Each structure stands twice: as structure tokens, then as C-alpha cells.
Amino acid sequence: MTAPLTYALIAHVLVGVLAIGLTHLVFMHFLRKTPSWKYLRSLAGWATIGFLGSWASGAYYYVVYYGKAVKPVILKGAYPWAHQVIMEAKEHIFIMLPFMSLALWFLILVLEKQQDDKIKKAVRNLALTILLFGAFIAGAGIIISGAARS
Amino acid sequence: MDWYTILIIAHIVGVALGVGGATFAEVNLVYAKRDGEISPDENALMQSTYAVLRLGFFLLVLSGFGFLLYYRLSGAEELLYSSALWAKFAVIGILSASAVLMQLRLIPLLWGSAVSITSWYAALVLGVFARGDVNSSYVTIFSIYALAVVTMYYILQLIHKKFVPHKEH
Fold it and tell me: Which of A92, A109, B48, B94 has the most CB atoms around its CB within 10 Å?
């Protein structure tokens, strides 16, 4: 693996985990009676940037290296479902995550100006959904890495 | 200093902050509730302890993923098959979920505390096991963990009964 691909994989994982951590903070902060909207907006904004960064670096790694070098190893190995099921699910869910996170940031902006309990609850649930998707994607990455044993 | 050493240091610092934070969160809670109410100063102290806990959790997770990357990049994927490692993943998942459930008031405080303390100590022990020669199955490790959570719950109940006054209605 070349150095840019190694850095892309590292960025994909660490920036993605950071974005999930920030979304976790957003969700936890949403549970407060009087959340700081400015703080929430900042967290959600950085989480979106993180998801986009992880998305871009992951896409580079996937297109340039994974399909040619990793996928065949997994398919020939003991756990082909790691690609056939887990990776397929991961890549489709990951397509949505940055946009869901962007929507979260935008809705926090709306809540900052116009507070509404129903919208607040819906946005909190959106943060939880992003968090659960993020946790799934992180777990899926571990399974795929483990299945890439030649 | 190589990346592996940096990861080990970050991971140990994260676990140390978490284990210490979880222990002191409970100690501070019992001390604060001894006189029947939590003062603003006591509340501020507990909040700072929770901040340390969150920092420890963050370091633990980030360095944990760093290890996984390191194994992947160095061709040591077989380490990902360790039952202790997967038990540790589950424990960290439960720890994270219990923090959310406590915040949502969906589980009693005492059960949340028992899960938090036991999980942090379990993460410490499993971290040692994952690098050693312990070959216990996932089910065995997880059964011991579940038993430890229940035991910790009853220990905390005893401590609270002894030191925290009960409100008379």
C-alpha cells in the first residue's frame, strides 16, 4: 500500500471516529433542558466536516485500493459475507451520513432561532440515528479489516 | 517514539482517567448525598469528574481504533480475532449505551453507576488480557462481566444504605 493510501485509511478511520464522538456529544447535549445552541451548532458543524473528510478519504481508498487488493482477499477468505453483506451495507449507509449530519447542523440553526419542542425531539432523534449509523459503520470497518486476512 | 508506543500511552491514560473518574464519580456522589442534598459546589465537583470521564472515554475509543488501524496496516489482522478484544468492544458499547440511558433517566442511577464502574475496570482488565495469553471464550468473559455488574450493584446499594440518609415522607 502506498503512503497516500495509508494516510487515507488512517484519516478515514480517525476522522470518522471523531465525527461519531462529536455526534454523541450533540445527542447528549440535546438531552439537557436548556442546551447551548451555539455550542451544539459548532459540534454539529465539525461533525459534518469530519463525516465529509472520512467520506472523501474512504472513497479514495475504496476506489484506488480496496476493490483491487482487499475485496478479492475477503471473497476468497473464510468470511466472504464481510464484503457481500457488511461492506455493501456500510457503503450505502455511509452515502447518507454526511447529508444527515448537514441536515442536523441546519436544523440546529433553525432551533436556535425558533425553539419548538416537537422539532427539538425530532432533531434529537436524528442525532441518535446518525450516532447509531456511525457506530454500525465503525463496527463494520472492524469486521471488514478482520476478514481481510490472507 | 514510534506510533505503537504513542497509542499505548494514549490508551493507558484514557483507561486511567476512566477508571479513576468512574471511581471518584461514585465517591463524590456518596459524599455529596450524605447530608441529604447536593450543594452547588458538590455539583460542580461531580461535573468536573464527569468531564474527566468523558475525556478518558474519548482517549480510550480513539486510541482503540488507532490500535485496530495499526494491526490492519502491519498485517496483524489475526489479533482482531481475540475474544478478549471483542468482549472489550461489547463492554465499551454497553458503557456508552448506559451513559445515554442514564441521561435519559431510563435506568436507575445505581444500576447506571454499577455498569459504569464495572465496565471501566473490565476495560482495564480486558486490555491486559487481550495482549496476554488468556484464551477464555467470549461467553465466559461476558458472563463474568455480567456477574461483576450485579455484584457491584449490591455493593453500591450497601454503601448507599450505610452512608446516604433516606428521605422520610
Answer: B94
